[in-house]
C-alpha cells in the first residue's frame, strides 16, 4: 500500500463523520431556499398611515412560506427607517415600505442623510401612488384654482398653506404651486398632519395640500373645499375633483408614492422572488379595490419601472427644493 493510500485510509472515517455532522444554524440558513425565516418590512412612520396600511396588506396576503412582520420605526421624516434598511444585511429578510420622502425628497434636503437614496437600496416594487389634493377652508372665497391664484395675487403673502412639516410631500407640492402659478402662499409648517389639519378646520390657515386618503372624510363632510387633485389624471376615488393640470397648471404632478425597497446589492434571485410575490398581492382585485377606497391608485410595477420612476422624481424635486431654498428644520 502506498503512503497516499495509507493517509486516505486514516482520514476516511473523519471525512465520513464531517459529512454526517449537522449544519450550524448559519450554514443551514445559507443553504436553505429563500425565505427560511420571517421577513421584516420596516415602515418609517407611525401605525395607521398609508405606508403602514400597505405594509400590513402585504403581510396579510403574501404567501412566501414565512410570515412578514411589520416594524414601525418612525422618526426624522422616515430617515430612521431608511437607515435601518440601508444598513441591514442584503439577504432579503429586511425590506421597507419607502416612497417619495425617503427615496426622492430627503436627499435634497438633509445634507447629512445617513444613506444614499439610490446606491444603498434595491428596488423591489412600485406599489401605489396617492394624489395630494389642494383644499381650502370654506371661508376662503375661491371655488377653483383660478380663483385661488387671483386671490393670492391680490393679497401677496397673506394666504397661508399648512403642511405636516418641512420637506414633506405637501410642502414641496405647495412650493411647486407657488412657482407654476406665480404666487406666494406663505408656508406654515407643523409637526405632523395631526397638528396641521385642526388649524385648517379652525380657519387659522387658509389652505393646504393633503394626501387624498386623509382628506376625503373632511371633504365629504364639507369641512374643507377641494379645489384640485395633484395627479395628471383624476382620481377614481374622487372623480368629481378636477386636476390642477386641467385647470391651467399644465404638467402639474405632485403625487405621493409608495414602494418596497431592500438593502443595496440584494441578490437578483431574492429580489425577483420578493418582487413577484409583492406584485401578485398588489394586483389582487380585492386589494386594488381596498386601495382605491382609501384614495390610493394601485400601480404594482416591478424593479426596473420603480428605478426609473425614482430617478425622475429625484431630479424633479431637487429642482423644486433648490429653487425654493428649502432647508431642514
From TrEMBL:
Signal listed as a keyword: yes
UniProt xrefs under CDD domains: PBP2_Bug27
Name of the protein: Tripartite tricarboxylate transporter substrate binding protein
Signal peptide range: 1-28
Cited Pfam families: TctC
Keywords tagged on the record: Signal
Protein's UniProt keywords contain Mitochondrion: no
Family: Belongs to the UPF0065 (bug) family.
Alphabetical list of SUPFAM superfamilies matching this protein: Periplasmic binding protein-like II (SSF53850)
InterPro entries reported for this sequence: BUG (IPR005064), Bug_dom1 (IPR042100)
Amino acid at each position: 500500500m502506498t503512503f497516499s493510500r495509507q493517509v486516505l485510509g486514516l482520514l476516511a472515517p473523519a471525512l465520513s463523520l464531517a459529512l454526517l455532522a449537522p449544519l450550524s444554524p448559519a450554514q443551514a440558513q445559507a443553504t436553505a431556499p429563500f425565505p427560511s425565516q420571517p421577513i421584516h418590512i420596516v415602515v418609517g412612520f407611525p401605525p395607521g398611515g398609508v405606508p403602514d396600511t400597505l405594509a400590513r396588506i402585504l403581510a396579510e396576503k403574501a404567501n412566501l412560506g414565512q410570515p412578514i412582520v411589520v416594524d414601525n420605526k418612525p422618526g426624522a421624516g422616515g430617515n430612521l427607517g431608511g437607515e435601518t434598511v440601508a444598513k441591514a444585511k442584503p439577504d432579503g429578510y429586511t425590506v421597507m415600505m419607502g416612497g417619495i420622502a425617503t427615496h426622492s425628497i430627503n436627499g435634497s434636503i438633509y445634507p447629512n442623510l445617513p444613506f444614499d437614496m439610490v446606491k444603498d437600496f434595491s428596488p423591489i416594487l412600485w406599489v401605489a401612488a396617492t394624489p395630494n389634493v389642494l383644499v381650502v377652508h370654506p371661508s376662503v372665497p375661491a371655488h377653483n384654482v383660478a380663483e385661488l391664484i387671483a386671490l393670492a395675487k391680490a393679497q401677496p403673502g397673506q394666504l397661508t398653506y399648512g403642511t405636516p412639516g418641512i420637506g414633506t410631500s405637501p410642502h414641496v407640492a405647495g412650493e411647486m404651486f407657488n412657482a407654476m402659478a406665480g404666487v406666494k402662499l406663505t408656508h406654515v409648517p407643523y409637526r405632523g398632519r395631526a397638528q396641521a389639519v385642526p388649524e385648517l378646520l379652525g380657519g387659522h390657515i387658509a389652505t393646504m395640500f393633503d394626501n387624498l386618503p386623509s382628506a376625503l372624510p373632511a371633504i365629504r363632510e364639507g369641512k374643507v373645499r377641494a379645489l384640485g387633485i395633484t395627479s395628471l389624471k383624476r382620481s377614481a376615488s374622487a372623480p368629481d375633483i378636477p386636476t390642477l393640470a386641467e385647470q391651467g397648471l399644465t404638467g402639474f404632478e405632485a403625487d405621493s408614492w409608495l414602494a418596497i425597497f431592500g438593502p443595496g446589492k440584494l441578490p437578483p434571485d431574492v429580489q425577483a422572488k420578493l418582487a413577484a410575490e409583492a406584485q401578485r398581492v398588489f394586483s389582487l382585485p380585492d386589494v386594488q379595490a381596498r386601495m382605491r377606497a382609501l384614495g390610493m391608485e394601485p400601480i404594482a410595477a416591478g424593479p426596473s419601472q420603480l428605478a426609473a420612476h425614482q430617478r425622475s422624481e429625484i431630479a424633479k424635486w431637487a429642482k423644486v427644493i433648490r429653487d425654493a431654498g428649502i432647508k431642514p428644520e
